[in-house]
Amino acid sequence: MRIILPFLILGLAATIFFYFTSPMLDEVKGLEVRKEELTLALESANKLEAKQETLVNQYNAVDLRDLENLDRFLPNNIDNVRLIIDINNIAKKYGLTIRNPNILKEEASGSTAGEAGGESGTESSAVMSFGVSSSYEVLKLFLADLARSLRLVDIESLSFTAGDRNLYDYQVSLRTYWLK
Asked: Which end of the chain is more exposed for a tag (fewer CB within 10 A), N or C?
């Protein structure tokens, strides 16, 4: 009995270890790995929160007028009426009248991704055409002001027909952009 008792106790200890303790140790190891993953995720979340706070502070530091100018430069919608009014106001400075303004087509041209995988938007554009009558010198001044305006536009085409006394009828086609 003295010889068998230590072997029984050793066998009982091995059985308890393999059936009860070993699975619990494996579970503890899994929980330690999960804890490390969650700790890394928490650190990443804290870094992102600090970055967000920095960006919010930078955004709040921007002058309201500059934000309005930025929205005018690349708005979040096309606003056809506002575009026509802006171009017409530039034309009025030179005594020109915009004739037959028309938005020809709208198209999505790609997506832009924000910094660090942030919010992304789709850059879209529309082609607008209109007619105007003027001399060549006045048209150059008008187009120069249009290029300096806050609205982002690209002249796509310019055609003309000769008129009376140094006046030409111009047909202008331009592309404007916005973010969706």
From this structure: N
